Amino acid sequence: MNPYKSYSLKYPFNIDFDTIQYASPIDKKKVVTSRYGWRWGRAHRGIDIDLVTGDEVRAMLDGKVRFVGYNGGHGRTVVVRHANGLETVYAHLSKYKVKVNENVKMGQVLGKGGTTGNARGSHLHLEVRYKGVTINPEYLFDFNKDNSIRAKDIWITRNRVNPVNHVSTRKSKMPVYNTREDALNGVQKERVVYIIRKGDTLGKIARRHRLSITQLCRINSIRRNSILRIGQRLIIN
User: Fold this and answer.
1) Which domain of life is it from (predicted)?
2) CB within 10 Å: which end of the chain, N or C, has fewer?
3) Distance (Å, rounded) from C-alpha 161 to C-alpha 171?
């Protein structure tokens, strides 16, 4: 499903759109039940949108179908590549309605929603990728009734692609970077998150990031004697 495993992206990079609107991937109100970010101690690299098994799933933008098949935890999946290099991924489907190399129009039915793969209940797992790298979909698209793309020219930083810097239970605050200069300036303000590993202590983490234990505790609202759990996130800046 990912042919770009050996490809290395340079940050920041930009994605441009030739439209300011997309087609809703479902035919009802879009309810996001789980967001891009850290979930249950691991990365959730897309968003989950509520639907009922059998609901039609549609292409968000014009494009060409690159992948149709079963892919591990994603279950039945369709990947559409768009003219700007962006790819949208539609997972947990119950049925396919397109074939590989088929050109599709914005709003065209790709398949039907379901529970295939590691799905806890029926929903659409939607990912947005560029050269194999997942991007927080809510940085590019507003999942509201207007179906709007947040800008025609959007610059992407590591923060926008790294799930560690987001939490699946709430929407991240992500101002759009419209120029490379905006993106470079924004990097200085983006928070850095560290994932606790086996053997870590507050002292080790603080020294590694040139902080005092007091600073680290204050930033994270924890105490010096707080128990650290493997997989726990600590904000570094």
Assistant:
1) Bacteria
2) C
3) 14
- 30-53 in b/e form (b: 16+ CB < 10 A) is bebebbbbbbeeebbbbbbbbbeb
The span from the CA of 150 to the CA of 17, in Å, is: 10
Contact 165, 187 (CB under 8 A): no
Q: Alpha-carbon distance 99 to 124, whole Å?
A: 19
- What does the alpha-carbon distance between residue 202 and residue 33 come to, in Å, rounded to a whole number? 33
pLDDT 10s digits, 174-231? 999 999 999 999 887 777 788 888 999 999 988 888 888 988 888 888 899 999 989 8
Report the C-alpha gap between 27 and 38 in whole angstroms. Answer: 28
Domains recognised in the chain with CATH numbers: 13-186 (2.70.70.10), 193-235 (3.10.350.10)
User: Do 77 and 89 touch, CB atoms closer than 8 A?
Assistant: yes
User: What's the Cα-to-Cα distance from 99 to each of 66, 67, 91, rounded to whole Å?
Assistant: 9, 8, 15
What is the dihedral angle through the alpha carbons of 91, 100, 59, 27, rounded to the nearest 10 degrees? Answer: -60
Give the closest residue to 62 by CA, choosing from 107, 127, 99, 111: 107
